[in-house]
Design goal:
Elements: H1 2-25, H2 29-56, E1 61-62, E2 68-70, E3 73-86, E4 93-108, E5 115-116, E6 122-127, E7 133-134, H3 138-148, E8 160-161, E9 166-175, E10 183-188, E11 209-211
Parallel strand pairs: 1-11
Antiparallel strand pairs: 2-3, 3-4, 4-9, 5-8, 6-7, 6-10, 10-11
Length: about 220
């Protein structure tokens, strides 16, 4: 519904701009002013709804292995473990704080459509007790991928999901050693999802977080 409203607003503005230009060329400045005022009013209403819905949203939290869906893509973290070191020998990496190795799963809930993800459209960050965000650890991820013979991580790590298909990947985060209640935040989508009313990617909208339990494994 939000995407349709954005499209209707976009094409409505294009139509209004065309009529306004025609009116000005015809010397009908009164009509041109009316269209301009109506367009500005429409934009104010749209952005008022966009920000209003975002500010009214609330923080959702799910557990490990509990799914949440955004449109037809579903996200979860089936498992997680912590450790101080990853790898052995030349490929060993030592965390500045503590490594969190999170198994991230993305599943298509579509019935017929193939889900196509654009490069850098997926964002996965860990969040500590103070609300600070951490992208994946380059050093820790390199050691883990070397140990598992995986290619270097890039997000998303796949580009297409068939209906009902899922894909998993272990992602490493280096969080402060005193972190007690970390969480994971996964978002998907680029422009223009930031302007879709009710979309988790929209400006100031609260994101769903996955609570990570501290199951230690050295």
């Amino acid at each position: 519904m939000g995407a349709l409203l954005l499209m209707a607003t976009f094409f409505g503005l294009i139509g209004a701009a065309g009529i306004s230009v025609y009116a000005m060329l015809a010397g009908n400045w009164k009509l041109a002013r009316r269209i301009l005022v109506s367009s500005v009013a429409g934009l104010l209403v749209y952005f008022g709804l966009l920000f209003g819905v975002s500010f009214a949203s609330f923080q959702k939290t799910v557990k490990l292995n509990e799914e949440f869906c955004i449109w037809e893509l579903c996200f979860s973290a089936p498992s997680m473990e912590t450790t101080k070191t990853i790898g052995i020998g030349a490929n060993q990496s030592i965390a500045q704080g503590r490594y969190y190795i999170v198994n991230v799963k993305i599943r298509s809930d579509a019935k017929r459509v193939i889900q196509t993800l654009q490069p850098e459209s997926v964002r996965v960050v860990a969040i500590d007790d103070h609300g600070r965000c951490y992208t994946f650890s380059v050093a820790g991820q390199k050691s883990l991928d070397a140990a598992n013979s995986n290619p270097p991580l890039s997000l998303p790590w796949f580009h297409n999901l068939n209906p009902g298909e899922s894909s998993e990947r272990q992602i490493v985060f280096d969080l402060p050693a005193d972190t007690k209640n970390p969480s994971l935040e996964i978002t998907e989508g680029q422009w223009p999802t930031y302007l879709v009313i009710g979309d988790e990617n929209s400006f100031f909208h609260k994101k769903t977080r996955i609570r990570l339990n501290n199951n230690s494994a050295d």
